[in-house]
Amino acid sequence: MVRREGVAAAEALGPFHIHRGHDFEGFRIEERLGVVVLSAECECGEVLDLADAAFERCPVCLGEGAADCRRCGGTGLVIDHAALHWRLPDGEKGDDDADDT
Fold first, then answer.
1. Following CA atoms 52, 57, 58, 61 in sequence, which dihedral angle do they give, to the nearest 10 degrees?
2. What is the DSSP letter of 12?
């Protein structure tokens, strides 16, 4: 599992899994069972972990939602990474390809 360093956010961020030898694809915001979640995705297409999405006011446009804001894309909101608590997708257990680095 990947551990991130931080001052106040270290506990909240927690680990998320990666597949050894695969590139990390990125994050996706989606709704699952009526809850907005952030999914961490592997280049192979597998969802690695999920976290309930948490948002904060965009620091660039100050939450105004400016159409030309490059940080929030006009929504006025950005992900609050310090508030994310990662978990495996429902019904799945950790596996041997989760990287412990």
1. 160
2. H
